[in-house]
Amino acid sequence: MISDIKKKNKSKKTVIIDLFSVSSEEEFLELFAREVIKASSSKWQEWMSSGKDFFKKLIPTLSLGIDPTADFKLSFDWRELKKHSDEILNLPETIAKKKGIQFIICLDEFQNLATFNDFINFEKKTRSCWQRQKSVTYCLYGKQETYDG
User: Which domains does the chain have, with CATH numbers?
Assistant: First the structure.
């Protein structure tokens, strides 16, 4: 089980993202970046500095709510995010190299991304970025339900 991996080996960080309700590329990229940053450390202070340290082209907007462990938000200007989405897609590898860790990223309901506008190009860009990463393992899963009218 994923939770057992991070208990046994502190240098392995796990990220589990449910994509069922994600409805756009922008929403995916922001959720992906937020969850990777949160998994990279257990302290919200480090999340805030990571949000600033690991981006070169993008300027994130970071905020914390009353409960920093649950209310950590990260967002970007969509025009800039669209131009530099590879910076988000490569974020796990960037953090892993800098911190000497490895990520296991599980994306549940991955088939939901096929509803995005221009999904084919998004999928190509994602695949191109992720296949070169050496410190990150991706698990993509979900189920495709069919409707028989």
Answer: 2-141 (3.40.50)
